[in-house]
Amino acid sequence: MSLLIRSCAILALIVSLPLAAAPAPMHSQFLPPDDLTLRGESPEQQQLLQVTEYSVVVGNQRQSNQQPIPVTSPLLVRLKGKSLNKGASISQVILNFDGESKSLKKPAFDGKSKTLTLYYPLAQYRVIIDLLRNETLYVQFLSYANGHIWADLHTGAVRSR
Fold first, then answer.
1. Which residue range is the domain that position 44 belongs to?
2. Which pLDDT score, from 0 to 100, does residue 11 have?
3. pLDDT tens digit string along 97-146?
4. Average pLDDT estimate for 54-82
5. d(CA 10, CA 21)
């Protein structure tokens, strides 16, 4: 009888292995509720990066061929890290901070340069730098056949103190 139970347990384990190996949705627990069902289908493209290093660039440019002469000082953060999902090609993320526009550009992934570009209001700069200094940070990019794009920066699950 004991041999029969063991045999059944081994058979159940073997049968369940392909199911356990099936990839779970990447970091889906960090997505907000999908009230408009924009993410009903599986994403066409998924990029997930664990941030391992960052640099801050505060630029200053003057385009002398325009009148009046605009002087701009772009603020960006460059993130580098390691891809976490199979088939991901992302190698870096550029975070642009805008303090003047009323709307932000949509996230864009360039497959040639393997760069994801995200746009945030300037008010988010301190929050993001604090997260980079104190937490493990991930960048997620999802694009869907219906044209919906989702991108975020998120921490892993953190225990409260």
1. 40-155
2. 46
3. 988 788 889 999 999 999 999 999 999 999 999 999 999 999 999 999 99
4. 85
5. 17
Per-residue pLDDT, averaged over 79-95, amounts to 93
Place of tokens 């045999």: 7
Strand 71-72, strand 75-83: pairing: unpaired
Domain count for the chain, please give it: 1
Q: Check if the beta carbon of residue 31 is closer than 8 Å to that of residue 46.
A: no
Greatest extent of the chain over all pairs of C-alpha atoms, in Å: 91
Q: Which residues of 20-56 are buried (b: 16+ CB within 10 A; e: fewer)?
A: eeeeeebbeeeeeeeeeeebeeebeebbbbebeebee
Q: Is residue 9 part of a domain?
A: no
Neighbours of 84 (CB within 10 A): 17
Residue appearing with tokens 């988010």? 124
How far apart CA 149 and CA 69 sit, in angstroms, is 36
Does residue 115 lie within any of the structural domains? yes
Assigned domain for 98 exists: yes
In a domain, 15, yes or no: no
User: Which SS3 state, helix, strand or coil, does residue 65 take?
Assistant: coil
